[in-house]
Structures
1.
Amino acid sequence: MNLSALARVHLGPGYSVSSGSAFATPAWLRLMLLSGCAAAVALAALIGDPAAYLASDAELATPLRGMALIKAGIVLTAISALWWRLRRPVSTRLALVYLVGTWWMVAASMLIWQLTLIPMAALTFHVGEIALLLAAWRDWEAPRRTEAG
C-alpha cells in the first residue's frame, strides 16, 4: 500500500498526500471552527465594556442589542452550514476563508452586544459575511443534491 492509498484509508475519500494533510481533515477543520469562534467571543468580551455606553445612551442600547441577537442568529446559521460543509474535503484556501469569515462575524456580533466599536464591528460583520458568500459561490467541491434516476 502506497502513501496516497494509506492517506485515503485514514483520512477518507478525496484526500491524497498532495491534496490534504492531517490538519485538513473534517474533524480538525470543525475543531478549528469551534475553537476560533470561542476565542473570538472571548477576545470581544475582553475588549468590550458596555458600562460607559449604557451610561451615556441607554435608550439606544436595547435596539443595538436586538441587532446583535439577529446577527448572532445569522452567525449560528453560518456555523451550522459550515459544520455541514466541512464534513467533505475542502481546499486550503476555501477553508481559510470559511473559518476567518466566520470568526470575524462571531467577534463582530459580540462587539455589538458589548456596545463597543459598533461601526467597526458592523463593517467587520459584513466583510465576513460577504467573504463566506463569495467562498460558497466559488466552492465547486461542495456536496450537491443529485437527481435520482
Note: The chain has a mean pLDDT of 83.
2.
Amino acid sequence: MNKRKLEMGIFKTIYDKKRYNDAVPWDKPDIKVIKNSGVIFGVEVTHYFQNETMARIATNDNFYSELLSAKKKVPKKDRKIVKTGKNTIFIKPPTHEKMLKDFLEIIEDKNQKHSGYDKDMSYITLIIRQRFTTYDNAWVNNSYDVYLNDEIKQAVKKSPFREIYVSVDVSETMLKVIPLKVLVLFSEIDIFYNTLDFLNIEDCSTKKYYMMLLQYLKNNGVEDVFIREQDNKFTICSSEWEIVTGEKEIKLLERSDFRKENTHSNLKLYDLTLLSNDEFKKIESSVRKNYRFPRDLFFEEGFFTNVQKGVE
C-alpha cells in the first residue's frame, strides 16, 4: 500500500473526524492537521513490526500470498520464527523484554528527531502502530505493566510530543488505542493521592492541593501539565486531554483547543512544604514501590478506546 495512504489510514483510527477540520499528508511530520478551532498541529506515524516478515506483509499487498505460493521466501533472519503452512503463516511473537527494548528505541529515536519537524505547528503527536499477528488481550488489558518499564516512563515523561499513542490489534477488525503520556500522568496522580490517603488528609480538593500536585508532578519529571480553574472547580490539563478528578470520579475530556496556562508561576504562593516532609517521602516511596495500576477504573472511564479498523 502507498505509504501516505497507510499513514492517513492509521491517523484516522486515532482521530475521529469530529476532532479536526482537515488533515493532509505532510513532510516532517507525516500529517498536518487543522482543528475546528483553527489550531494547526502535526502527527508523526511510525510502525512497530515484530519482524521483517510482518513489515513486508503490511507494506506490500502481494507479499502474504507470494509467501504462501512460494513465489517469495521468508526473509533470512526470520526463518527461525516464521513458518509457512498450506493456507496460513505462523509467526512467533517477540518476548516482552524484546518488545520493551524495541519500544524504548522507537520513542528515544523519535524524541531526538522532534526538533527537525515543522516549527510552525502548535504541537506534534506521535502514533506508534504496533502490528502483531496474534491478539493477546491480556497484554493490552494490562497496558501499564506491558508498555511501561522505568526506562520507557522516563522517555515518555521527557518526550517533546504532546501525546504518544500506541495503536494495537485486539482482533482482526478492532484496535485498541493507548495514550502513553496520559497513562504515565494518571499513575503519578494516583500515587500522589494514595500517599495523601495514608496521611489521612481528607480534603484534597482545594486549590492548595492541586498546586501541590502540580509541584509533585514537576518533581517527578512530568512538567507539561497545568491546572485549569473554572467556577471553583479544577482540572488537570496535559497531553490532548483534561483530567477531571473528584471524590468518587475521574473523567477524561478531550480538549478542543490547548491554550497553555502558566500555573507553575503561582506555585510560590502556596505552602508546599508537605512534599519535603520526611513522613510524606517515606510513605510516597512505599506507595510507589508497591503500586498497582487501577486498570478497571482506567478502562471504565474511557482512557482506552476500541476502534474499528479502517483502511491501512
Note: The radius of gyration is 21 Å.
3.
Amino acid sequence: MYNHFIGIDAGKKGAIAVLNSDGELLGIIRLRMRSLWGREIFDPQQLVRDISSVCATQQCDIDWEGVFVLVEQVNPRKQGRSSAFSFSGNSIGIVIALETIGAKVQSIPSDQWKEKLKVGSSNLATQGSSEAEHSKFLKLLAAKKAKELFPKFKFKSSATKDEEESSLIAWLGWNSCKKVA
C-alpha cells in the first residue's frame, strides 16, 4: 500500500527521516527554515525537494500518494507559549503541504510515540533529577533505540537527537502500517 514512510520531528532544529517499504532507513535530512516577516518558518517547497532528493539518491522514485507521513505534535506544556505556537505552526504547515501533494499524513503527540517505543517518561524512574537532566536522559534513550533499529545508519552527533527521534517516528509509522496489512 505505501512505498515510503516519513517521520518528522517538527521542531526548530527538527529532522525528517525517510524509510522504504521494507523499513530500511534511506536517509535523514534537517528540517529547513526560512525567514518570513522576521520569523523563522519551515519552507514547504524545500521540504518536498529534500524528501524527493533522499529518494533520488537511493534511485527510487517517490509516488506521493504512496507515502505515509507521521509528524510529531509538540507538547506545549514543556515549552513557552510562543515557542509551542511556532512549532505547532510548523506541524500544521507540514501536514497541509504534504497532504496537498497526495501523501497520507497523521500527527502523533510526542508523549504518545515515546510511550509506544518505551522511550517515554512513564517507563523510567528518574525521581530527583532536574527537568533538563530528565529530558537529556530521554533523548539518549531514544538515540539508543534508534541505533538498535538502524545499526547500519550513521547518525550525526547532536545534543538534540532530532535525527534519531525522526527515525523512530518513521519506524513507528512503518510498523503500524505493517501490522494493518
Note: The chain has one domain: 4-175.
4.
Amino acid sequence: MENEEIKQEECIDYEGKAARFTLALLLATLIIWAIYDKYKTGNNGFQWTLISATTLVYFNSKQYFIRRDSKRKRIEKEG
C-alpha cells in the first residue's frame, strides 16, 4: 500500500502544472495589455492574435497528447 502511494507521488506532472500556470499568466497579461491598448489608442492590437494563437496551440497540443497516451495505453493493454 505504501509503495502505491509513493508511485502516485512520483507521477505528479509538475511540468504540466507549470505550463498551465504559465499559460494563465501569459493570457492574463495579454488580455490586460489588449484592453489597455484598446482604451489608449482605440485600435485592436496584435495582442488578440497572440491570445488566439496561444490558446489554439495549447488546446491542439493537449488533444494530441491525450490521443497519443490513450493509443499507447490501448497498445499496452492489447500487447
Note: The first helix runs from residue 2 to 10.
